[in-house]
Amino acid sequence: MLAALFLPLIGCAPQEPRRPFPAPTRPAAAMPVAPPAAAPAPVTARVGLLLPLSGSNAPLGQAMLQAAELALYDQGDRGIAFLPRDTRGTPAGAEAAARAAAAEGARALAGPLTLGETAAVARATALPVFAFTSDETQASAQVWVLGVTPAQMVRRVMQAMGEQGVRRFGLVAADDAFGQRLAAAMRATASLAGWPAPAIHLAGRGGDVGAAAEAMRAGEAQAVLIGHAGEAARGVAQALAALPAPPRLLGTTLWAAEPGLGNEPALAGALFPGPDPAGRDRFDRHYAAAFEGRPPRLAGAAYDAAALAARTAREGRPPIGMAFLGADGPVRLLEGGQVQRGLALFALRPGGEPMLVQPAPVPGPAGS
C-alpha cells in the first residue's frame, strides 16, 4: 500500500535496473551494420541541473549528475531533457548557470549545492528551484530545500520523546549557525506542543562541559539533544551521565557518519534521527547497478531534486501536497518552500552499527 502511494512520482522499478546510459562500444569489423536507431522522442520540457562540474567538488557533481540521470530513467519520460550547467562551486557561477538554463528553456531547476549558491539562484530567476542544501533559511515561495534540515532532526526526536511522556528538553550545541538553528527549532517545537521552554546551552566547541551539564540540571531537562559529534559529543555525554538524574541523550544525523560513537558508554542507547535505511539501501543498490560504484550521501538529494524538477517541468507546477519516496525516505512538499521529511530513529550501541528503533513515518499534511 505504501509503495503504491510513492511510485507515481518516482516510478522506481522493483527489479535491478539496466545501466540507463551505457557507454558506446565500437562494433567488431566483421559484424553487420546495425539498423538505424529509432528517432528520439520530441523534447516537451527542459530541466536545468545546477552542479559543481569543475573545481574541488567536481567528483561530487559528477555523481550527482548520474543520480539525476537515474531519476529521469526511472520516470521513463523521454520527453524531458536535462540541461547540466556548471556552477563552478560559487554563487556567481550558480547564478550564471541558472540564467543560462532559463535562457535555454528550462522550466525548473535542480540544485545548486550550497546556501550561498541557492540564494544567488533565487535572486536570478523566478523558476521553481529544488536545492540540495540543508539550510532551511533559503526556503521561499519558489525554493524547496531538499537536504535534511536541523528543524526536521529536532522535530523527529522531540516527537518521539514526547510520545514517551518527555516534556522538558535541553540542547547542548556549538554557538554557530547549526547550533542556533537547532535551538530555534527546539523552542518552536516545544511552544507548539505546549511544553516548557527548553534549556539551551550554546558555547564554543571547546566549551565547559560542566557548565553545560549544570544548565541542563537547572532546567530539569528529561532529554538533551547534543548538537556536537566526535570527541565533543563524548565529553558532553560523560558530563550529563554524571548528573544525579541523567537525562535521555539525543543526537543529530551527524552521528550516522560515526559508527564507533556507540562505544562511548555514556552514549550507549542514545537516539538520533537519520534517513530511512530501506529507502537509502534501495537507492544505493539502484545506483551501483547502473554506475558500478557507491553514491556519495548527497547524491540522494540530487535524485530527489531531479525527479521533482522533472515532474514540475512536465506538469507546469510543483507537486504540492503529494508524498513520495525519495532516496533518503518519505518527503512531502508544501507551499512556501516547506518540505516535510520522514526520518527514521536509531539507537547507538557499542561494537556495532546503530540499531533501527523506528522506521521513517510518512509525513502528514501538517507537521513532519
How does this model look, in words?
The chain is α/β, with parallel strands linked by helices and 368 residues long. It contains 10 helices and 15 strands. A 5-stranded parallel sheet has the order 2-1-3-4-5, with helices on both faces. It has a 4-stranded parallel sheet with strand order 7-6-8-9, with helices on both faces. Strand 1, helix 2 (58-75) and strand 2 form a beta-alpha-beta unit. It starts with a helix and ends in a 10-residue tail after the last strand.
Report mean pLDDT, rounded to a whole number.
Answer: 87
Strand order of the largest sheet: 2-1-3-4-5
Low-pLDDT residue spans: 1-36
Distance N terminus to C terminus? 20 Å
Helix coverage percent of residues? Answer: 25-40%
Total helical elements: 10
Give keywords:
Rossmann fold, 368 residues, 5-stranded parallel beta sheet, alpha/beta, 2 domains, disordered N terminus, 18% strand
